[in-house]
Specification:
- By secondary structure, the protein is an all-alpha fold.
- It contains five helices and no strands.
- It is globular and about 50 Å long.
């Protein structure tokens, strides 16, 4: 895939993540001061799930198209996340800082849990910190990805 097309796809994915947050803005504002009800909690779980999926979609594109190496096996999601902190022979820069990966590991863990849980298994007390930090995490990770794209454009 041409680098321009890859960059365009990554930028579209970031736009979709931004759109996701725009749609959830009223609920995110509300839960800063008031505990969500059952339906709102389930909705916030979907937000956490969708956010991580969007970020991981970007990593998958980078792994396939630039690194030409997508991890396999049962731990591939975690391996993919870690791969983004490594320089490769083809990609001579990191996509993410190790600090960002540590933050995203919590979202990956929640996404895994939520895929296998019923809505009534969700617990606001366990989700609260992830939700309340989410906008800040989104800004940081998208900032690191945008910096990667900017530097990648310069060398390609």
């Amino acid at each position: 895939m041409e680098n321009e097309k890859l960059i365009e796809e990554i930028e579209i994915e970031i736009e979709r993540i931004e759109m996701l947050f725009e749609n959830y803005k009223p609920l995110l504002r509300k839960v800063k001061t008031k505990e969500p009800n059952f339906i709102e909690t389930a909705s916030l779980a979907m937000l956490l799930h969708s956010f991580y999926n969007g970020i991981e979609n970007i990593f998958i594109r980078i792994a396939k198209e630039i690194d030409q190496k997508l991890p396999q096996g049962s731990g591939w999601h975690k391996e993919l996340l870690n791969q983004m902190t490594e320089k490769t022979p083809i990609r001579k820069q990191v996509v993410l800082s190790e600090e960002m990966v540590r933050e995203l590991e919590e979202y990956l863990g929640f996404r895994h849990f939520s895929r296998h849980a019923y809505a009534f298994d969700l617990n606001w007390k366990l989700m609260k910190e992830l939700v309340l930090r989410l906008s800040q995490i989104k800004e940081k990770v998208c900032g690191e990805i945008k910096l990667f794209i900017l530097n990648f454009k310069k060398v390609s």
